[in-house]
Amino acid sequence: MEGDDVTLSCQTKTPSNLPAAFFKDGVFIGNESSGDITLHCVSSSDEGLYKCYISGDGESPSSWISVSEKHPTTSPPTTTPTKGEEVEAILQLFES
How far is CA 89 from CA 5, 50, 54, 64, 78, in A? Predict the structure, then answer.
């Protein structure tokens, strides 16, 4: 949902401490030694096909991420607004 943080995790079948490269729509967006990358406060511009690559292990299939619109509430909030929720998506590498 708009405003949430989304964490993408690149995982191999066997545990790996190698860095993962992340791509959106075929364009490199970051290299993370932890194997995770977080997209902060997502919006519709973050929609697209994501994949990751770990050297020596290969790349994940592309996964579509869509961002839904936050709907305004008709009544005022009864509590103090908090930061958006965090969502996790796992990009799994498969052996061919």
Answer: 11, 10, 17, 10, 31
- Answer whether 19's CB lies under 8 Å from 12's CB: no
Per-residue pLDDT tens for 35-69?
999 999 999 999 999 999 998 889 999 999 999 88
Rounded to whole angstroms, the Cα distance separating 43 from 85 reads 13
Where helices occur in 1-96 by DSSP H, the ranges are: none
Helix (H) or strand (E) holding 30: strand 27-32
Find out whether 84 and 5 touch, Cβ atoms under 8 Å. Answer: yes
**Amino acid at the residue 39:** L
Cβ proximity of 86 and 3 under 8 Å: no
pTM of the model: 0.76
